[in-house]
Design brief:
The chain is of the alpha/beta class. It is built from 5 helices and 5 strands, in the order E-H-E-H-H-E-H-E-H-E. The protein has helices spanning about 15-30, 40-45, 50-70, 90-100, 125-130; strands at about 5-10, 30-40, 75-85, 105-110, 135-140. A 5-stranded parallel beta sheet has the order 3-2-1-4-5, with helices on both faces. Helix 5 links the parallel strand 4 (about 105-110) and strand 5. The two termini are about 20 Å apart. About 40% of the residues are buried.
C-alpha cells in the first residue's frame, strides 16, 4: 500500500481536516509522512515583497504544530516549506515537484484552501494537483469526518 504520504497544508479548516486524515492513514499504514506548506512567493514578489519571510514564519509554526501531533502517534514525520518561483510558478507545481522528489505515493490535501473566491467548487491548487501529480491524490472535502 502507501509507505510515503505527502500532506500539503495551510491554515484553512479543510486543510486541518486533511491533516487529520493524513496522520490517521500514516499511522494505520505505518507510512512516512511529509508535511509541506507552500509560500506563494511568486505572486507576492511584485506586490508585497516583504511578506514572504513573514509567511514562511507562519508556515513553520503550522508545520511544527502538525509535526508534533503526528509524532505523538508514532508517525515518522518530516516537514518542508516550499516556495513558488519563476521556475515553479504555481502552488500545485511546488506540491507535485516535492511529491516527485520525495517519492510520495499519495498526496493528501484539502479540496479548498486559502484561495480566491472564484474557486467555489474545488480550489484551483487542489484541482491542479489532482490533474498533474504523478501519484494518487486524496482530496478531503469540508466536513469529511474521520470514522
Amino acid at each position: 500500500m502507501y509507505t510515503r504520504i505527502l500532506l500539503a497544508i495551510d491554515a484553512s479548516a479543510t486543510a486541518q481536516q486533511a491533516a487529520e486524515h493524513a496522520i490517521a492513514l500514516a499511522r494505520g499504514l505505518r507510512a512516512s509522512l511529509r508535511l509541506v506548506c507552500v509560500v506563494d512567493a511568486a505572486s507576492l514578489a511584485g506586490t508585497l515583497p516583504g511578506m514572504a519571510p513573514m509567511m514562511s514564519g507562519d508556515a513553520r509554526l503550522l508545520l511544527d504544530d502538525w509535526m508534533n501531533r503526528a509524532a505523538q502517534f508514532g508517525v515518522d514525520v518530516s516537514t518542508a516549506i516550499l516556495e513558488t518561483s519563476p521556475k515553479v510558478p504555481r502552488v500545485a507545481d511546488a506540491i507535485c515537484a516535492e511529491a516527485a522528489s520525495w517519492g510520495a505515493q499519495l498526496v493528501v490535501l484539502g479540496s479548498r484552501g486559502r484561495s480566491g473566491v472564484g474557486n467555489l467548487v474545488l480550489g484551483s491548487a487542489a484541482e491542479a494537483v489532482a490533474r498533474a501529480c504523478g501519484c494518487a491524490v486524496l482530496l478531503v472535502h469540508p466536513g469529511d469526518a474521520l470514522q
